[in-house]
Design goal:
By secondary structure, this protein is mainly β. It has 1 helix and 3 strands. It has a domain at 19-63.
Length: 75
């Protein structure tokens, strides 16, 4: 089944080559492990395949938080 042109599917993981998915210790490629947005910040845990360490990467404000703040009445 072909999707309509207005629907686009984006993967959750970032494309290879993104600096945020490179290990800060060894520079190896990291794989996505977990996403945490309950605090209002978009924090994701990645694991380096080369040195087997986990790193938490902050992607800024979570999308649900932005939408919630935009829907609050002014005043």
């Amino acid at each position: 089944m072909k999707l309509p042109s207005w629907i686009s599917i984006r993967p959750l993981r970032h494309y290879k080559g993104d600096d945020r998915t490179k290990c800060p210790d060894c520079g190896g490629e990291m794989s996505f492990v977990e996403r945490f947005t309950m605090s209002g910040d978009d924090r994701r845990t990645y694991r380096c395949q080369a040195c087997n360490k986990e790193h938490i990467v902050d992607f800024g404000m979570a999308e649900w938080k932005r939408l919630s703040d935009a829907n609050k009445p002014e005043g």
